[in-house]
Backbone:
């Protein structure tokens, strides 16, 4: 089986079919025939059909026309259900591979988006570090300027107050 797919290739399917066909046939359990006949008899009691166990032949009793039409209606409803189920199965067989491709495409898009986000995050972190360096330089310059101004202010005050005292 291939690693990147969840289904068998044509060659693998043909190989599996050949193995199954060449193998021995399986025997049904002994009790299965009795069980099927019992269930058929229960159904026959409900629908007024006589089941003869000899050669598994089914004989229908004569029924009024209304019951035959209801059976035909039931057969029609059953047939429509089977057709709808087959159509749904075919639609799923057609749609599922397309859904897988869309899912794989969305995973690929998510991975690309995550890679872009990580790249942007790295750029933002680099910009933040540069800004922190600028801020620290500016803060240092501000502190030095503030110290210089305060010393200048003190010296100016000393000079002015000395003049006034004299």
Residues:
């Amino acid at each position: 089986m291939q690693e990147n797919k969840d289904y068998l290739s044509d060659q693998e399917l043909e190989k599996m079919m050949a193995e199954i066909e060449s193998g021995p046939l399986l025997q049904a359990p002994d009790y299965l025939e009795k069980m099927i006949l019992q269930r058929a008899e229960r159904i026959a009691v409900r629908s007024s059909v006589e089941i003869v166990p000899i050669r598994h032949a089914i004989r229908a009793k004569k029924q009024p026309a209304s019951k035959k039409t209801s059976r035909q209606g039931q057969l029609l409803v059953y047939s429509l259900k089977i057709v709808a189920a087959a159509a749904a199965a075919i639609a799923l067989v057609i749609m599922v591979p397309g859904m897988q491709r869309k899912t794989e495409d969305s995973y690929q898009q998510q991975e690309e988006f995550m890679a872009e986000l990580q790249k942007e995050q790295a750029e933002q972190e680099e910009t933040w570090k540069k800004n922190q360096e600028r801020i620290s330089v500016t803060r240092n310059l501000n502190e030095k300027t503030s110290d210089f101004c305060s010393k200048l202010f003190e010296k100016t005050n000393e000079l002015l107050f000395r003049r006034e005292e004299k």
Q: What stands out?
A: The beta strands are 49-52, 57-60. Residues 27 and 45 are 30 Å apart (CA to CA). The chain is about 80% helix and 5% strand. The longest helix spans residues 65-165.
